[in-house]
## 1
Amino acid sequence: MRNAFHEQLDGIFDDLATICGQVEVAVARATRALLEADSSLAEQVISDDAEIDHAREKVEDSALSLLSLQAPVAGDLRVVVSALRMVSDLERMGDLSVHVAKISRLRTPGYAVPDAARPTIARMAEIAEEMVGRTAEIIRTRDIEAADQLRAADDEMDQLRRQTFADLLAKDWQHGVEAAVDLALLGRYYERIADHAVSVASRVVFVVTGETPS
Amino acid sequence: MRNAFHEQLDGIFDDLATICGQVEVAVARATRALLEADSSLAEQVISDDAEIDHAREKVEDSALSLLSLQAPVAGDLRVVVSALRMVSDLERMGDLSVHVAKISRLRTPGYAVPDAARPTIARMAEIAEEMVGRTAEIIRTRDIEAADQLRAADDEMDQLRRQTFADLLAKDWQHGVEAAVDLALLGRYYERIADHAVSVASRVVFVVTGETPS
């Protein structure tokens, strides 16, 4: 039988999945703003981030209230603390989407990403968005196999990050310093979004199994 | 009279101050490795990071044990949760020092930072190191005025970050794309170290006053 503690915990995990869904939208929109030089969409990502911050506060309040009222110990305690960490990761992923949107906004009406680097960045963005979507699903379903698989996607991300450096350091790079710096930072932001997604998924594994994947 | 809870909590804050001291050393060494192209010092920063990670785990275990055994509520609970967040920030600052060390290692025997950009990066590094040192002191003394002053240093950091962009995007930048990208990333790493220092200091203010500075 499920008790009050586990019901409240389920509520927190529902909220985490919802926030992860909001982050997925933020990543998708920031990418579209970037690749289509759409400054109003970039503005929207930047202003909508307040909703993610607000949702984070709500989860933190719920988790603290759960700790206060139920005083969980051992495994239950670690699960609540994991939820607090997950919501920090998710908020940070939202911030990183804002960073992408700001680079886009800075360059409109031009494009931040030159055509030559477009496939790499588009693929990084696609992986990041997909990883965030899968992470939301992993929070919902507690599917630890899916969490393990997420690491494979992260490997491709690391490879693409190296590719961005190879692109912009190649002798035939003709797009100047500004585009190179944008590209390096964009690569960093998408890579960090993916890192945080893996971190959230690992915490789900911990919540289910009591062990952190190595 | 101080009870067992507060004694254990003091122990956790002592550990946090010690970790912050380790981070200060990491930032200082990473900077020296960078500016003096000292690859063995860079290696040391990279390998010593495991100690910070280990110390983080120890603080987490102590905080969880405190939550389990004492089941604090209200303000006391929030203080313990703040300690958990502070140790996350500190570990991340260690990781960022490693990122600086890795850029240094990648370019040795050459210098990652061209002479023209040296003053800006040296100043950013100096501010970061100083901010981390002051943060360790703030954790030790719970000096909330010093925590407020830390923000002023962060403003200069933001200004210098903009300066790095102005430098590398200037028409007379003659150091190529690679150095520009290194500079943009180094600027980002030092800025993030400073951000985390402000975050840690703000949590100290919260611990003392019960309110987060705006």
## 2
Amino acid sequence: MMVDDALKAAAHINASRLLESVETLARFGAREDGGVDRPALSPIDIGARRFLIDRAAALGCTVRTDACANLFFRHPGLEDLPPVMTGSHVDTQPTGGKLDGSYGVLAGFECLAALNDAGIRTRRPLEVVAWTNEEGTRFQPGAMGSSAFVDPALIERYGRAQDSDGISLDSALAAHREAFPLLQTRVVDTTAHAFIELHIEQGPLLELANVPLGVVSGIQGVRWYAVRCRGIAAHAGTTPMHARHDAMTLAVAVRAEIETLAYQLGGDDTRITFGRWTVVPNSINTIASEVTFTIDFRHPDAVVLSAFDRQLADCVSRHAVTLAALFTHAPVDFAPAVIQRVADACEALGAPSRRITSGAFHDAMYLAKHCPSAMLFVPSRGGISHNPLEATDDDHLVLGARALAHCLVYLCNEAP
Amino acid sequence: MMVDDALKAAAHINASRLLESVETLARFGAREDGGVDRPALSPIDIGARRFLIDRAAALGCTVRTDACANLFFRHPGLEDLPPVMTGSHVDTQPTGGKLDGSYGVLAGFECLAALNDAGIRTRRPLEVVAWTNEEGTRFQPGAMGSSAFVDPALIERYGRAQDSDGISLDSALAAHREAFPLLQTRVVDTTAHAFIELHIEQGPLLELANVPLGVVSGIQGVRWYAVRCRGIAAHAGTTPMHARHDAMTLAVAVRAEIETLAYQLGGDDTRITFGRWTVVPNSINTIASEVTFTIDFRHPDAVVLSAFDRQLADCVSRHAVTLAALFTHAPVDFAPAVIQRVADACEALGAPSRRITSGAFHDAMYLAKHCPSAMLFVPSRGGISHNPLEATDDDHLVLGARALAHCLVYLCNEAP
């Protein structure tokens, strides 16, 4: 029985083995403050990858890679059908924690081990993936591995990206091939049956709602802009207020107007942040001649994002300031059938869950273009993320892995 | 007749000689953009000083220096009376112009030359001074020379000040002594009869009023503060607005409140500037954890400045942000009798003038503690200052020197 196997797999999730694996992987790039600093394809990351490859081999999985050094760990299926995929990334922010990305990969590994322990064979293959350079810290942009998996043409451009030492992604990929010369290449000959990414929430909503599992229905769209306001530098003591052209006075007025229009358009789902400020000449006794600030606006509704674009253009035109678009991504709606499987898995385990929209980007944002996809979140204590203090209760980590196992086995076994 | 001599001296101001001297001095530290970069006591500044010393010697003046390398160029008087002093500084901002400071010194020199040309002997000596390090660019604080002249005890602390290369003022003063080993030391055995500083306005008021001369009645008081606002760094995409502690949101709210209270207290004379901003971590997609901004508040009324201090303390306490006092100076009221002499000189020349409060600091701020002092301003084109584009019409430069000559001779000859 499929459903029985799904429950059986969930029941074979070994809590201590899962939690130990988190601690073991965190040793690769461990920071003194308890966090992790593991740049993509660095020697530290290659050490972490060797650990994963060795463990997968011990679990009887085949291990393959691709042009962007993504790692695919496959548990064979009974039939020659497209795989069900799960996974995340193991690179971190410079001041990252132990869970962001790594938890999703290690929970996938724990599912592989649970299948073995329970003696379960699934109809479809189950493939755990570690995507390369999700954080975008060493090489820009982020999510290189997952986006290049979905659109292999991207790899040519990505290859020329350089890190802060001038090392290209191409060189880093060559070093990766040298480190693992025996790895076979995975050919993308078919789309996967489904992709599920398990991740920490990186926000406070599940904790505030006191709910241990989040069924992620999509990812917010985002707009990144830079607004440049020009003034005229002048002496703070000698220039009367009415004769000033203070770029900072202009910038805070424009910021306030943009904030208001963001709320008006977006309501409760609005996320608006003015995070980076550059002031020229940035002197106590000189009126600012130029202030540039960034906008990070996110919303799950594409109509709201477009309206924001239009009204922002009107706003900057009214104030005669300059607008530069830095980045844009449309909202992602995950596949209703896969969302439902995730929700069903939570229910089957008797675990409370709620629908949630992801505020952060994830590899699943790109996988959603390849195959039916969804995500599962566990709570982040205090909503803290990209920080050595990032943490999730052990019970939540284990419950997330159980729900993932249930969902993956169900998907692996469902009728084509 | 005293008044005749004052008019005669004014009439002997040689426009082309004055304007040429401005261009000649500007060659010491000339910038490619037409501005001047002449750090205090640098080899460039010592070159400029040598030019002044040679010119003063050619004019028959005695040249002396003191512990802070101020240079005193004295035209002897007929009687053994305290001198009338005039002058300013010849160090500049890194992106300075040709006039700030230098104009006041060179106009003083032109007065000395006019006395010679007209064959005028005054009752009191006339002393032109070049004060050391007014700008405070190479060594902090500014106005070292004039403040140490007034309070010689300051030189011990000033001596330890270091420039950005780690060179102490003491070392720079030693280099100055080596460059001019024959200069005698001026002893401050008596207070001067009066001090007048001629300077460019560095603001737009005279130009806006279309008046060529400003009779400066005092210098605004100033408060410099830094306000530090703390928040909590969090992900711009995952953190709902109601769960944020955005240091920038707090900072712009506190800034707005401070601006309002400054206007309420200070009325039209208010000068309030928030010029320097530091944002942590200053990242597009991270909510700011800390924002520090500076306040430069100036007003001619000490009561207003004190009220500002109190209400600012209440404001930061209400918002639980941190306040650090960086610098403070009380308003300076110049001596009514000297102000009147300056106004009389303008009237005697038939030149329109208006009373004005200085928004910038000047050496006269310190000299006012030593002897009856005042200042005379000429217009700054567009109010531009501390900028290679700094400029004043030739007619205004010449008129300012004529008014200075009239005023100095009148003061030199007035009854004890």
